[in-house]
Amino acid sequence: MYAEIISIGDELLIGQTVNSNAAWMGQELNKIGIEVYQISTISDDKNHIVNALNDALKRTKLVLITGGLGPTRDDITKYTLTEYFNSSLVRNEKVYKQVEKMLKKRSIPMNDLNRKQADVPERASIFINYAGTAPAMWFELNRKVVISMPGVPYEMKELMTKQILPSISQYFKTPVIIHRSILTYGTFEAKLAEILSGFEDQLPPEIKLAYLPTEGVIKLRLTGRGDREERIKKMINREIDKLYKIIPKYIFGEQDDSLEKSIGVLLKEKGETLCTAESCTGGMIAHQITTVPGSSEYFIGSVVAYSNRIKEKELGVNSATLEKEGAVSRQVVEQMAQGVRERFGAGYSIATSGIAGPAGGTTEKPVGTVWIAVAGKNGTYSRKYIFGNDRMRNIRRSTLAALNLLRQYVKGELEHL
Hints:
By secondary structure, the chain is of the alpha/beta class. The protein is built from 16 helices and 17 strands.
């Protein structure tokens, strides 16, 4: 089953407010077996609302609207929907008492505009808004449903979670939709698709595979649809097991995992510690590592050695090597990794040195050239990467590459040193 979302508000169209509501609603609807067919963002204009609603009802049986339910003149959604469904406004005493209670709690005096928020369409079913003053409204027409909610995110989420989603589930008989995601790093989307072509060919019709790449990380999302939840779960689990056998060296986690989380798990299991020496990444690797709760158990610290003087003084990099090879080189980044590991007494270390850009590149070392090294008790391993011309993207991709290189090293997946 499909639904459409209509977001109303001039502030959304001019970029003053980011439309986070629609994304959240899409996720929550999907959990109960409803897919979002289209999301429309329109202005606070009667004709726009009517036209968008007409179009949506031609395509779907369920339309969810947010915005335009406030007490001011530009909030016209309630009045437009009242007219659209040939209804009239009536005072709802339960809504009125809630508005009164909410305003009293906030020490705001009641006025005519606030009172009018308790005037609701007679033909609508009403959901009391316990987080605000504007109620949600449920309209039915020819077995199709239109639901109007406030645009304030926390009010909308409160209404959706506790009242509207359960009501939708009860009203519509929807199929089971289950998602499970595998996170990979270390190859390109086209190459991964080539490797998994045979896997895709044998997928049962109830299961679909989607590739979702983001700056080097490729999420493989398996979606199963059917009438029986347990059956779909078992089918997806079987396909996940196959992926772990086909591409084990690329998989680092599932669902909301991250490289930094997976590294934390590995280091805790081994009782090991980690430190970093960063040049081009400017502390981004350390930042990512310390976003993980409990990282103080294994992360010791970091040296941001942006200048050659700090590389020499704090990390023990040889000045002759810097002069001969340059800061962006295998020799220097390996000395950085070895130096910080020795000084901090850590089990493992990461080091980076590169040309983030947009300037500073040469023919031999273009912008985006990055050397990354990892060191541990089994020696030091380094790898050269060439990313692109965008500075922030180069920093983020270098961070991910460094974390993945360490993950492979700790797991013993790198070549023999």
